[in-house]
Amino acid sequence: MLAYRHAFHAGNHGDVLKHLVLGEVLRHMGEKDKPYSVLDTHAGAGGYSLEGRYAGKKGEFEGGVAALWDDPAGLPDALARYLELVRDFNGGAGAKLRQYPGSPAISQALMRHSDPLHVYEMHPTDERILRAFLGGRPHTQVHLSDGFASLVRELPPPSRRGVVLIDPSYELKPDYGKVVAAVREVLTRFAQAVVIVWYPLVQLVEAVQLPKRLRTAAAAAPKGWLDAQITVQAADERGFGMMGSGVFVINPPHPLHGTLQECLPVLAERLSQIERPKWLLDAGLK
Ligand SMILES: C[S@@+](CC[C@H](N)C(=O)[O-])C[C@H]1O[C@@H](n2cnc3c(N)ncnc32)[C@H](O)[C@@H]1O
Pick the catalytic residue: 40, 126, 167, 175? Predict the structure, then answer.
């Protein structure tokens, strides 16, 4: 049985970075009058209460979305768009921050009804919540299955336009290798896929190596890749704990590099719990 529940972490600094990127990618995909698919391999429950016992227990969202929500003035446009999504999920203008949209909620908000959405979740409770959450959406398949293994069955999508979000919990070390293998599989079957991989910055060999391995895997991608990181926390005295996170995007939409150049310094500063936060934007664009 899986122990990880995303409800404990919803809205933290990792979610902010990941969902900023996901939102910008989906907006770009929607600009063309052609359908596109989203495959979300590790979907979670869809949306989360920030007042419940889970999110409240660790309060991680306070160092994440709440730090932007409480002081939205002067944010770059893309971060303002991200906050708007969260605001809409909470009921719109004047709402209090009570809930947080997970990746399926962000897809649901930004995709056209006719764009196919496939979500995979292995935790039976989260899958049940997710199924209920997405219940009325047309062209949607909720799979209670291993996203790494099932993903390839939907590739390439009929429209030959698609986004793959790979966002495991990395609770188990083999997840790091599975991410690289999944990226290779995706690009073999569908080289034009826009692939978004979220990863934690932790002091673990597998984690440190992951971005390098992703660069090698992405070498065949026609539009190249970009890698965005923020470091906003300190590890504990034993070296444990997440210091920040990164998002690796393969075949990124052209404007994403400029958008991240603008947003990363702001995110690093606003979400930081350390004296010297860091950010990094590296790219191998073609
Ligand atoms: C980091 S959370 C996902 C958060 C979600 N993508 C979001 O942004 O809102 C990872 C999720 O993957 C689920 N999970 C773990 N291993 C899985 C697998 N092999 N296939 C599908 N889901 C898995 C966990 O139960 C957990 O809900």
Answer: 167
